[in-house]
Design a protein that fits this description.
The complex is a heterodimer of chains A (114) and B (112). By secondary structure, chain A is mainly β. Helices cover 0% and strands 53% of the residues of chain A. Classes of the chains: A mainly beta (114), B mainly beta (112).
Amino acid sequence: KAGVTQTPRYLIKTRGQQVTLSCSPISGHRSVSWYQQTPGQGLQFLFEYFSETQRNKGNFPGRFSGRQFSNSRSEMNVSTLELGDSALYLCASSFASGNNSPLHFGNGTRLTVT
Amino acid sequence: GEDVEQSLFLSVREGDSSVINCTYTDSSSTYLYWYKQEPGAGLQLLTYIFSNMDMKQDQRLTVLLNKKDKHLSLRIADTQTGDSAIYFCAESSGSSASKIIFGSGTRLSIRP
């Protein structure tokens, strides 16, 4: 069974631009969550989608948004990029949104903002 | 609030057992996790334990949970060079099991 797939693996953008990251969950998984990993803040929860609906949101500004499609694939968008948005963005999928489904992570997209 | 703490570094000799410790604060956590991260890679789910369990064993891995003290440990038996990585302890948020609170990670290094 294929794991969580994130594309692209690496991105370099300029401050002020926007970026879209993609995540394909494990087949059959319907919940997708996004996390940001930085050396200073560690791993922080961005948001979770289930059945095309945002279920939970972390403490990030509105520049960070996401969506989920009917096939459970998800995209995350960051607008008006800032230097501090440079990070590893990790997507995780689980079978369901709730207490019985551990998260499985992809290898991440490393975003560098210059 | 919710918080997970773990020591930053651990060095063990190859072949010895490694024990990585973690404390958490959210008593309503349903699941507690151990993830492994190798350089340049994402997070690999190693094992997880349901909050009503005390122990879980999976090959070389043993997880112990002391719910009273909110203490979680991961023991890796017969530690090998391939076990070198950062290990993250994490708890599911009481409000949503899909929102995981991570510790800062323990970097495990193996001495020959």
